[in-house]
């Protein structure tokens, strides 16, 4: 199991598998976001957002949650979409508007936003751009089925 965890850590960037107490089902993991490559930003279906998935499970290395950082240039967007699991955003840098079921909410450093499962939501970054942490109570980001509103 330890070899699998080290292999997974090597795949997602600079990580450190921490000492595991004997009563824990999964090994703790520390990930340096600066060493995880950006994804996204190239498909107009979802907008100009880019992200770094920091904590994510696989069949070989299960996790209990997904954690990442979304990054937007000035005016960047994450198009309106839905997915079944609830999600949170926590503002890190810059500012923007997160619209949830038609209601706009400001996001900026220190602001936490809860998005209920199934709620339509999208984001527009302000003039300084925007960075926020996001998370899901799912073990694997790839298992989350995004339904973009523009697709019907």
SSE topology sketch:
Elements: H1 2-12, E1 15-17, E2 29-31, E3 39-40, E4 50-55, E5 66-72, E6 77-82, E7 87-100, E8 103-107, E9 112-115, E10 121-136, E11 147-148
Domain Cupin type-2: 69-128
Organism: Parasedimentitalea huanghaiensis
Protein name: Cupin domain-containing protein
Give a written overview of the molecule.
The chain is mainly β. It has a single domain (37-151), classed as Jelly Rolls, CATH 2.60.120.10. It has one helix and eleven strands. Strands 3, 4, 5, 6, 7, 8, 9, 10 and 11 form a nine-stranded antiparallel sheet that branches. It is globular, with a radius of gyration of 16 Å. 21% of the residues are buried. Mean pLDDT is 87; it is low at 1-10.
Protein traits:
152 residues; Cupin domain-containing protein; 45% strand; 7% helix; RmlC-like_jellyroll; 9-stranded antiparallel sheet; Jelly Rolls; disordered N terminus; single chain; mainly beta; Cupin_2
Strand content: 35-45%
Continuous helix count: 1
Compute the CA-based radius of gyration.
16 Å
- The CATH homologous superfamily is named Jelly Rolls
What's the number of structural domains?
1
CATH class: Mainly Beta
Number of strands: 11
Specify the structural class.
Answer: mainly beta
Cα end-to-end separation: 43 Å
**Name of the CATH architecture:** Sandwich
CATH topology: Jelly Rolls
The SSE order reads HEEEEEEEEEEE
Uncertain residue ranges: 1-10
Tertiary shape:
globular
InterPro entries: Cupin_2, RmlC-like_jellyroll, RmlC_Cupin_sf
Pfam family, one: Cupin_2
Domain Cupin type-2: 69-128
Protein name: Cupin domain-containing protein
